[in-house]
Design goal:
alpha+beta, 3 helices, 2 strands, about 35% helix
């Protein structure tokens, strides 16, 4: 099929614009996205951030073991326990 035939049959591709695109939904990618949103909120700005993950859910490709030092979580969300996080 030619590009024009594809366009005619399926229509144009969907597109969305973001200020920041983070590739990878592991701990570093999620922390980056969270921190960027926190910093923009502190400055009274609203930025759009998207995390692209090839797995079925964020963190799907990291090593499993369910062990995490909560220090990093506490740095991002000092009140995570009060918010009811597991």
């Amino acid at each position: 099929m030619t590009p024009s035939e594809i366009l005619e049959q399926f229509g144009p591709r969907e597109a969305m614009e973001y200020d920041v695109v983070v590739v990878g939904g592991g701990p570093a990618g999620l922390s980056t996205a969270i921190r960027l949103k926190q910093l923009s909120a502190q400055k009274g700005q609203d930025i759009s951030v998207v995390v692209l993950e090839k797995g079925s859910q964020p963190g799907a490709h990291i090593l499993s073991g369910a062990v995490m030092d909560p220090k990093a979580l506490t740095e991002l969300f000092p009140d995570w326990k009060e918010l009811g996080a597991p």
